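Exercise 4. Each item below gives a protein and its sequence. For each, produce the structure-token representation.

Item: Cyanophycinase (Kitasatospora arboriphila).
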Amino acid sequence: MHRTPTPRAGRAALALAAAVVLAATTAPAARAHTRPDGGTLILVGGGLKDDNAEIYGEIITKAGGAGRARIGVLTAASVPESQDPDAADPERCSNSVCNGAYYAGLFKRHGAADAQWIPVDIEHVAAADSDAAVAQVESMTGFFFGGGDQYRYLTSLLHGDAHTDSRVLAAIRAKLAAGAVVAGSSAGAQIASGPDMVSGGDSYQALRDGSAPGYFDDATRLGYVPAGGFGFFGSGLLDTHTGTYGREGRAIRLAADTNHDRVFALDENTAVEVEHTGGRNESLRVLGTHGVSVFDLRRARTRTVAGRWSIEGVRYSYLTRGDRYRPRTWQVQPAAGRRPLTAATDAPVPADHDVFCSVDNPDGVPYGFSGTARALTATTAQRTATATTYETGPAFAVRFERRGDTRAWTDDGTTTASLADLTVGIGPAER
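Answer:
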């Protein structure tokens, strides 16, 4: 497995910009808005495939349906056209302009009546307060935020040190509150976060070193933005690309460090649809090909012994297509037609010595964390399983425990499709 990191020069430039923002936002800033209530969020964990008709179709449906939906596309998380060495090549370009056109074309192919790029990026910040861009937003019935780097969204759609909405963002926020759909993938999902939005980091380094406010040139260092993103989603922390990059460890560590009691960690090509966003009837549903991890830290306990961090008592649920979740009651509802799984195999849980799919392991296999959990719920051979990190200085172990209130559901009668309330602990491993 290989990941494509943000170029170091690009991260360094953004880190400098972030330092300016963080200097004034080390605590959540006052906003000139209230939390939206009534609209729908569709947040994708990145890696959204062009042919994912389920997710694109749901965005279009919530925006008014095929032939009526008008989607405003925002790609300010991408580099601007002037910084893209391949800007002149339509087959290789990756900048705000060509990415905007790309997504607009995709939405039209999936049935939208219209889709338009909203021309705001880090080199055209003034456009976020222009009459023309606001009028464009007002004519749309739904919105999609593309991927890239969420810090570019902060610097292009919020007003610097004040961390208040530009006119474009305020108009989108009002549309969401009135019932519109706002979707995003990767950075476009992360930016929906409230306080303590993650800004980077890998799981092993997060467990070893902890988190810090900021945006760091070292892409492995766990950083976060105390003031958060746009605050569209308030039911927990968000993380993306979870199973592919093994980000479960960093999600748990960030939540523990910042005193959050819940994290929603989204897999690639998978979305969580949040209906009645921010309201009493807020409900989540999973769409797509993989799953959404929900980490419940209400009963979790952390400690540090001889400089080594550990946590116990995290409740872990892994939800897949069609499963629902009620944030107010912390309840999982399995998808229609899914039935309880009774463990029937006596096969042991396969050993995993790279639970977070380390970038340093050329043979790393993604989805090790959720794979171990699913295997444990399907076997009678054991009630606990342990998986370890690829790194050994020191190594960390993840301990999974099936308890009396752990539940699992199946589609085929033998394998786990989704699960709820497995207990997870992480601490130094003996090797």
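Check: Confidence is low (pLDDT under 50) at residues 1-9, 23-36.
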